[in-house]
Every structure is written in structure tokens, then in C-alpha cells.
Amino acid sequence: MKDYLILESEAEKDYELIDSGDGMKLERYGQVILSRPDPQAVWPKMMAEGEWKKAAASFGASAGGEKGQWKTYSGIPVSWPIEFGGLSLNIRLS
């Protein structure tokens, strides 16, 4: 059996990994919840699909599959402030 290294991050005021699995991550940045791909999340999602639908935006492949794009579902600001690792940042979807 292969040993795996599991990395854990310290809790942050404005960041939270809510759930992950099936190649996706559900994360909170400040008050904004986002869903985005993570090819290393090979396990099944733990939370119900209804929780994933609470995301304000999700990132996925475009129709051609070559480039990805954000799809927004609710009023998401163009940018918003967060504190992370002792830094004050303004972040946005890109």
C-alpha cells in the first residue's frame, strides 16, 4: 500500500475549504463561495449537491473545452477584500 502525504492549512478568517471531490473544490473567500476544478480531488464529494449550488460562481470548461470561464449565479462583486496570511488583498474572478 502506498503512503500519501496529507497537507492541512491553518484556518484563515477569510478562507475556508468547504468541500472537495470529484475533481472540484468548494471554497469561501471572504463572504463569496466559489466552485472550481481541482484535478487532485479524486475522492467523492462529502456534501450534498444543494450545498454546492450555493456557490456564487463556478469555473468550468468552455463549449470548445480549450479554455475555462467563470459562470456567475448571484450578485458577485467585481472585486472584494479579504485577509489571508497576514495580508490584506483585493481579489476578483480571473
**What is the approximate shape?**
globular
Per DSSP, the total helix count is 1
Strand tally is 7
Radius of gyration, in Å, reads 15 Å
Uncertain segments of ≥5 residues (pLDDT<50)?
Answer: none
Largest sheet, if any?
5 strands, mixed
Q: Give the neighbour order of strands across the main sheet.
A: 1-2-3-4-5
Order of helices and strands, N to C? Answer: EEEHEEEE
Fraction of residues in helices?
A: under 10%
Described by its quaternary structure, the protein is single chain
Q: Class by helix and strand content? A: mainly beta
Q: Indicate the proportion of strand residues.
A: 35-45%
Return the average pLDDT rounded to an integer.
89
Distance between the termini: 40 Å
